[in-house]
Amino acid sequence: MFSGIAHCADCGSKLYYCTTRYFETRHDHFRCSASQKAVDPCTSHFIRAVVLEEMVLAHMRYVIGFVQRYEDSFRVSIEAERSTEIQKELSAKRKQIAQSQKRVDDLDVLFRKVYEDNASGKLTDERFMQLSRGYDLEQKTLRQMITMLEKEIDQQEQKTTQVEDFIAKCKRYSSLETLTPAILNDLVIKVFVEAPDKSTGKRRQGIHISYNLVGILPPLERFQPVVVERPNKEKAETA
């Protein structure tokens, strides 16, 4: 069920599904595909398939329940956070475009200089051709990158947060009891599995779920509205 979805939280590699000689489902497990590398291998990030399924189902049910209970707060908070993230990405891309455009302009100046040096005999024809081809290739690459970044910026500016679609999905699975491949693929993009922690003497292992449309959610408790209890009017008057 999790093949292609389960990933290592440390190196990002996919987790391989492994069966055992016992031929019992409860022994099937996942391990990091990079743990078999000859050079700089990752740790196995071993997790039994049934445990992973239980953890993912529990988290999905928690998220679905939270969204249903605090829908308005969830909507406003996620939209605000994603808007901030998008603005940061747009700012970085605009900066990259400005830097690339400056380099394109600088290359124009350099090309004119080598042309003049070649015309005056300071630069051989062979060297001129070598430099001009290099400048031309770099300019072409930069212009392609600028076009690509401008297109990405345009798409991001027009893109909605898609929070409403995610909320609709949560409502669709309001009575989720059993996890199926169809439901998993509809709601989840990736599941990142951490390496087990045995520092306390007990084996503990965490996961991070990247949900479809909204990505990895921050702790939902921060979205929960704070209810301020007002003193009872009658008690206040008789006190």
TrEMBL record:
Residues 1-61 form the Recombinase zinc beta ribbon domain. Signal peptide: none annotated. InterPro entries: DUF4368, Zn_ribbon_recom_dom. Residues 152-215 form the DUF4368 domain. This is Lin1624 protein.
